[in-house]
User: Fold these one by one.
Assistant:
Number 1:
Amino acid sequence: WPSEEASMDLVKDAKICAFLLRKKRFGQWSKLLCVVKDARLLCYKSSKDQQPQMELPLQGCNITYTPKDSKKKKHELKITQQGTDPLVLAVQSKEQAEQWLKVIRDVYSGCSGQA
C-alpha cells in the first residue's frame, strides 16, 4: 500500500493499488501509483495528486504477463485496449503480477456482461 501521506480518497474502494513502473518511449520507466477502481486502471504521478495522469477502462482489455528473464528485464504486465498503444507496467515479482492479473481479470469478467 502507498505511504501514509497518500490521499486516502485515491485508494478508497480500490480493488488493488501499488507503485508500479510504467514503460515509456525509448525504454525509460516512470514510477506511478496504479489503482484499480470502478473497472478502470487509474495511474497517478504521486499519491498526493487528485487527478490521474492516465485512466484506462478495463472492460474489453487484454492483459498478458511476461516473466523476468534476465537481470535487465522486469516482470511485465502488458494491458492492451483495442485502438490504443499497449500499456506496459513492471511489477516486483511473479506473485505481485499474479495478484494484478487476478484483480484485472475479475474486474473485466464482472463487467463483460454489461453492454
Number 2:
Amino acid sequence: MSVLKVRYFKHKDVDGLEILNCQESSFSFPPHLHENYCIWLNLSCGEKIIQKGETRLLKPGFFGVIYPGEVHSNEPCEYRNRSLKTFYLSPAKLESTCRENWGFKEAPVELRTNFYESKIIIRLLLSLESSLLNDCSGSMERQTFFLTAVLSLIRFCGAVTPGTRKARYDEDKRLKKVIDLFYDRIEDNIFLDEVASYLDCSPYYFIRFFKKATGLTPHAYLIQLRLEKAKALLSKGRAIADAALRAGFNDQSHLYKYFQKRYGVSPKAYQKQTCMVSDH
C-alpha cells in the first residue's frame, strides 16, 4: 500500500487537531473508536459508515460527525476515486476554544453524531486543511481558519450539555467504571475475572453487557484505547518500542500488527508523517 494514499498530519499552530487524507480505495477501516471527534467527508465517492448495526452512506456534499468513543467502521462504496478526509478534533480543544472565544463557561459543548449537508462547512474545512499544508500561510491565518470552522460546526451541529465527554456512559455506571479502569491501567495486563469481580458480576455477563453497550468485546475495546494512546505518543516523537510498552502492548511487533490494520499505515510511517508536518 502506498504511504501517500493514507496520510496523517498535524500542525503546531493548531494543537488538538489531526487530519487524515485517505485515497486508498482498497483499505477498509475495521470496527474502531476514536478518543476525539471524527469529522469527515468524502469528496469523490460515497463512504459506507456502519454503526450500531446500521449502514449509512456519506455522500459527496455531506459531512459526518462521530462522537468520541462511539464504535464504527467504514469503507468506500466503490474501489476508485476515493478522497476521504477526516478531521480529528480533541474534546478538550473544542471545550477550551469555546470557553476562551465565545464564553461557554457554565457547561461544555459537544458536536452531535449525525450526517449533515453544508457546502459552507465543507469549504471551511478544506480551507483549514489547505492553510495547514501551505508553508506560505502564517500562524494567524491558520488559527483564524480553525476558529471560523469550529464556530460554524458549533452553530450547525453543536449542543450545550451538562456532562463531561464520558457522560454518555453515566446511565450505566458499571460501563463507566470499567472504561475508567481501562484508562487507569492501560499499561497493565488486565484479567477478565478481575474486571468481573470489580463489577460484581460474572465474566460472561460482563462480556455480554459490554458488547451490547459499545459494539465491541472488552478486549477489542481495550485494544482501541491502547492504539489511540500509542498513536498520541508516536506523534510526540516517542520511540516506537517505548510507545508500545506505555500503551500496554507486549512489544513493538505486537503494536505493528494492530496499528497497520487499524490506521492503514505503520507506526513508523505515521510518526514520520505527523512529526514532519509539526516541524513546519
Number 3:
Amino acid sequence: MLLGDLGAEVIKVEKPGAGDDTRAWGPPFVGSESVYFLSVNRNKKSIAVDFKHPRGAQVIHELSGVCDVLMENFLPGKLSAMGLGYDELSGRNPALIYCSISGYGQSGPHNQRPGYDSIASAVSGMMHITGSEDGDPVRPGVAMTDLATGLYAHGAVLAALLQRHRTGRGAHVDCDLLSSQVAYTCGCVMDHSRRVLRV
C-alpha cells in the first residue's frame, strides 16, 4: 500500500476464486468489496495465481524476473519448496529485493508457527500495556502488530532499494510480526520494566 502511495506499480497476488479473505470483511461494503479491503489495497492491481498448478509457479517466475521487489508472507521454506524462494528467484534476477514477512522470522525455534496479529500482540507484551494498569491484558482496537510490521517492511524495502542503487545487488529482507511489535513498543516496555509485571 505505502509503496503504491509512493508511485510503485504494485501487483497483489491472490488465491483463485474469492481472492483475499478481506474482500468479504464487513460491513461496510462498496459494491461487493469491503471498505477495509479497498483501504489497505489502494493503488494495487490484483491477479489470481494457483500455486498448486505448474502455470502458477511459472507466472511468479516471470514476474520476479522483471520486478524490483517481491513481498511474501508464507511460512519460511514453503516458497523455496516450490522453487520460488529467494535463492531460486534471485538467480534469475540478481537485483531482486525479496521481502519475507512471517510470524517469527525465517529462522529460529518458532519459525514454522503461523503468525497472527493478536498472538504477536500478546507475546510481545502489547496487550499487557493496553488497558487499565490494574486490569487484564487488552487486545488493541486495531491490528497494531500488522500495521507495525507493514511499516517496518516498507522501510526495510526502501533501504534495500537504496543499497541496490549503490551496489547493484538485491537482498533478502526478513521482517516478522513479533520483532516488529517488540521494536514498536520498546519505549513502553522499558518504562514498564521498572514495575512488577502481571503473571
